[in-house]
Design brief:
Strand content of chain B: 15-25%
Oligomer: heterodimer
Shape of chain B: elongated
Shape of chain A: globular
Number of domains of chain B: 3
Helix content of chain A: 40-55%
Largest interface: A-B, 41 and 47 residues
CATH class of the largest domain in chain A: Alpha Beta
CATH topology of the largest domain in chain A: Rossmann fold
CATH superfamily of the largest domain in chain B: Chloramphenicol acetyltransferase-like domain
Radius of gyration of chain B: 32 Å
Number of strands of chain A: 7
Order of helices and strands of chain A: HHHEHHHHEHEEEEHEHHHH
CATH superfamily of the largest domain in chain A: Thiamin diphosphate (ThDP)-binding fold, Pyr/PP domains
Helix content of chain B: 10-25%
Largest sheet of chain A: 5 strands, parallel
Radius of gyration of chain A: 22 Å
Strand content of chain A: 5-15%
Structural class of chain B: alpha+beta
CATH architecture of the largest domain in chain A: 3-Layer(aba) Sandwich
Structural class of chain A: alpha/beta
Largest sheet of chain B: 8 strands, mixed
Number of strands of chain B: 24
């Protein structure tokens, strides 16, 4: 403990881990239950996960570069959280619903949301460019923890629509909400947990504990281990090594299955680390030390997958090159797309205020159009 | 034809307007690929590296390291088509880099073709491994082709280096942004501050503590000069000069003084006055139970005297509004007291001093003084002053010609009080004597008004009982 003072004091909490940082299997028998849940994960699945994680990381790098060259106003970096996101989202099915916060780029990508459309928000073009109904992925929520309540309400809705616990694996649905350790300090999370528990709502609370709520470390943010946060509300809880994609997948699979089958909510604490900044406006070197970053870089989730693939004999350079090449093209397309976005018409802000035509909205739109014309005329007169 | 692209400083945070260029990682003549890190900047929030949005050859660095650039300012020019026939760019007067010079010798440290030079000697990473000749052939160089059919466009794009905050200099030091800002305002290098916070974080108190110690103004003797001199600053090679950056309070003082001295025509009038009665009054008040725990000084009586004079001549309590060409007469007196503090001169004022009795005034003065000495004077404490006293006497000085606090029409200098031979009731006796000086803005205060105000102040100090008549 003494040599890792930045770790929250609850490191002694049992934490599900199936793959060790060096890529070898964790043979600890206490996790046999979870190991058995993911027996079907084969080399092809591992390769898929690697590809998803590599693309997610490349997206992170490219979007950061776009922000640094003035193409995006802001970007929320997710480097280091690849296993938590990719492992968990692969436990969802098409009929499930996802409520992301704003760092869930890997989740969006696996759900089929074109990531370039996520960048609309970060360029300030619109509030989120993708079709939520098509992908069953709600828009990003920037208000910390507000969406834990939206997710719980949505879960209560599908419960009442009879989409839960019918026994049909193709239609039984659940909701997963992603949030961070910082969100657990908001009242909304507690309210959501309570509503979910008393209604036995089909919702999985997936907390990515990335150690830092902007510049506030876990050691100064909460006293009791986060994983126990659900227990008082009557919600089953599990703590998982968030940088172990297999373990994350196992616990999430169980939780989603329980929710779809009418077993109610689950709280998952995925212990991970935000290797980058909170956002591009933040500078973590100002509040955390290199020793902490080194500790976590030795537990890098992507490298662990590579090590696992090597250990399984399923890694080769050709595959690596293919994925790298795909990532290059993906990045180039992102760049071109973002640079071509331009700015939307000012009238766009009136577009989705009401679902149906609205007199006051129309009046304001017309007035604003006139105002802009006047401005243009005024400039022409100089 | 060469194609010059300017990279404009982006807003690396949210709503930032400027950034300091910390270090250029490229030099003129270097070949860069898209996403290569080219420069390190420091904003109010963070130290960040910026990648190049273009592939090409650096032809000019427009803002050298150490300078501040506004968001939107072009900071570097990159020729994205360096191998085409050279023609002079039509508008900017830039010189095209010589492609041959840029590609011949990989070990060439980057000769200075144009602009400000290579900057950081050998510290900057030099030319990339790619041959410049494959850098860009596309007609839209800013948008590299998305396919890999030709090696040329791919070579022009790097996978982004992991862009992050760099760890040079102060980055090793842990401190929160407001503390960094404080250190910067005070001109303190965080690397020299001892940290007391958890995990080695430098706290606000650490910075202030460092500043208090630094105020001792360490002296040092430099080679080539036998006289000790201030330890901070940059000493000239011959050891005979020290240059210290103008910062913070010193900078604000300088700006205010220049503004005042060169907009308001100053006139000063002087008066020597017997303040023996004032000294008796001060002694009496010190013994007064009501004033116990309050510091009573001759300055307090001078303040009251000035307030009484203002009450009789309210036109002195005014300011000149250049923009509207109006004179603004204030119905209130925010009495400024110039205070020498370790950080420099500050002029906080006592709000609505005209409503205060002597005791209240004494308490307000005590509070103002201790706040200023602690370096905690807030901007609002210094704003909207209407008239000022500078107590030069505390330094043993007889008098001076004070410069107006900007936005005010008069300032009173209160000199040292000395026992002197004085003609009193027809005889030469030893009396307490001081000198008063009043500077005023001659645009709105005539000599007569200024003289009357000063005469009234002197009259009260000479015979404080007059305050009963005028109060």
């Amino acid at each position: 403990m003494a040599e890792t003072p930045w770790l929250p004091h609850n490191e002694a909490e049992p934490t599900v881990q199936l793959v060790l940082p060096d890529g070898s299997e964790n043979t600890d028998t206490q996790w046999d239950h979870y190991r058995n849940l993911v027996k079907d994960v084969d080399a092809a699945t591992w390769r898929t996960w690697y590809r998803d994680m590599a693309l997610m990381r490349r997206f992170d790098e490219e979007a950061t570069a776009l922000q640094r060259t003035g193409e995006l106003a802001l970007f929320t970096q997710a480097r280091g959280q690849e296993a938590a996101q990719i492992g968990s989202v692969h436990a969802t099915r098409a009929q499930d619903w996802i409520f992301p916060a704003y760092r869930e780029h890997g989740v969006l990508q696996v759900r089929g949301v074109p990531l370039k459309e996520e960048l609309h928000l970060f360029r300030g073009v619109d509030h989120g460019g993708w079709d939520t109904e098509k992908h069953h992925v709600h828009l990003n929520t920037l208000v910390i923890s507000a969406h834990t309540l939206h997710a719980t309400g949505y879960a209560m809705g599908i419960q009442r629509d009879g989409l839960v616990a019918t026994g049909d694996p193709d239609t039984d649905a659940a909701v997963m909400v992603y949030f961070g350790d910082g969100a657990t300090s908001e009242g909304d999370t507690s309210e959501a947990l309570n509503f979910a528990a008393v209604n036995q709502a089909p919702v999985v609370f997936f907390c990515q504990n990335n150690q830092w709520a902007i510049s506030v470390p876990g050691t100064r943010q909460y006293r009791g281990p986060l994983v126990r946060r659900g227990a008082g509300f009557g919600v089953p809880c599990v703590r998982v090594d968030g940088n172990d994609v297999l373990a994350v997948h196992a616990v999430t699979r169980e939780a989603m299955e329980r929710a779809r089958n009418g077993g109610g909510p689950t709280f998952i604490e995925a212990v991970t680390f935000r290797q980058g900044a909170h956002t591009t406006s933040d500078d973590p070197t100002r509040y955390r030390g290199t020793d902490e970053e080194q500790y976590w870089s030795q537990r890098d989730p992507v490298e662990r997958v590579v090590a696992r693939l090597r250990a399984m004999g399923a890694w080769d350079e050709r595959f690596h090159t293919e994925v790298t090449h795909e990532a290059d093209e993906f990045a180039a397309e992102l760049r071109t797309y973002v640079r071509s976005l331009g700015r939307p018409a000012s009238s766009a802000m009136f577009d989705h205020v009401y679902a149906t035509p609205h007199a006051i909205n129309q009046t304001e739109r017309d007035w604003f159009a006139g105002f802009e014309r006047d401005l243009a005329d005024g400039e022409g007169g100089h | 034809m060469a194609t010059y692209q300017k990279f404009e400083l982006p807003d690396a945070g949210e709503g930032l307007t400027e950034a300091d260029i910390v270090e250029w990682r490229v030099a003129v003549g270097d070949t860069v690929a898209v996403n290569d890190v080219i420069v390190e900047i420091e904003t109010a929030k963070s130290l960040v590296e910026l990648p190049s949005p273009f592939a090409g050859v650096v032809t000019e660095i427009l803002v050298p390291a150490g300078q501040t650039a506004n968001v939107g300012d072009p900071i570097i020019v990159i020729d994205t088509d360096p191998n085409s026939d050279s023609t002079s760019p039509d508008d900017s007067g830039l010189t095209q880099g010589d492609p041959a010079a840029a590609s011949d010798e990989p070990d060439n440290s980057g000769s200075v073709l144009v602009g400000y030079g290579t900057g950081g000697e050998e510290a900057a990473p030099r030319r990339r491994r790619q041959q410049p000749t494959v850098a860009v052939t596309a007609t839209e160089p800013a948008r590299p082709a998305t396919t890999g059919v030709s090696p040329a466009p791919r070579a022009a794009v790097s996978a982004p280096a992991r862009l992050r905050s760099s760890r040079s200099a102060n980055a090793h030091v842990l401190a929160k942004p407001p503390v960094r800002l404080l250190a910067r305002e005070l001109g303190i290098d965080l690397a020299s501050v001892a940290a007391s916070g958890p995990g080695g974080i430098i706290t606000r108190e650490d910075v202030l503590q460092h500043q208090r110690q630094a105020q001792a103004r360490e002296l040092a003797t430099y080679p080539g000069d036998d006289q000790p001199w201030l330890a901070d600053g940059e000493v000239s090679p011959d050891g005979r000069q020290t240059r210290v950056p103008v910062r913070s309070v010193r900078k604000r003082t300088a700006e205010a003084m220049v503004t005042s001295a060169f907009t308001a025509p100053h006139v000063s009038v002087f008066h020597t006055v017997d303040v023996t009665q004032t000294m008796r009054l001060v002694a009496g008040l010190k013994a007064d139970r009501e004033f116990s725990g309050v510091r009573v000084t001759p300055l307090l009586i001078a303040m009251k005297a000035l307030l009484l004079a203002v009450n009789r001549h309210p036109e002195i309590n005014a300011s000149w509004d250049e923009a509207t060409q109006q004179i603004v007469y204030k119905h209130y007196v925010n009495l400024g007291i110039a205070a020498a503090t370790p950080r420099g001169l500050v002029v906080p004022n006592i709000k609505d001093a005209h409503r205060m009795g002597l005791l209240e005034l004494a308490q307000a003065l005590g509070e103002l003084t201790s706040t200023a000495r602690a370096g905690k004077t807030r901007p609002q404490d210094m704003s909207d002053g209407t008239i000022t006293i500078t107590n030069v006497g505390v330094f043993g000085i007889d008098t001076g010609t004070p410069i107006l606090n900007p936005g005010e029409a008069a300032i009173l200098a209160f000199g040292a009080i000395r026992e002197q031979p004085w003609v009193y009731q027809g005889e030469i006796t030893i009396r307490h004597v001081t000198q008063l000086a009043l500077s005023f803005d001659h645009r709105l205060v005539d000599g007569e008004l200024g003289a009357r105000v000063l005469a009234d102040v002197a009259a009260v100090l000479e015979e404080p009982a007059r305050g009963l008549v005028w109060g």
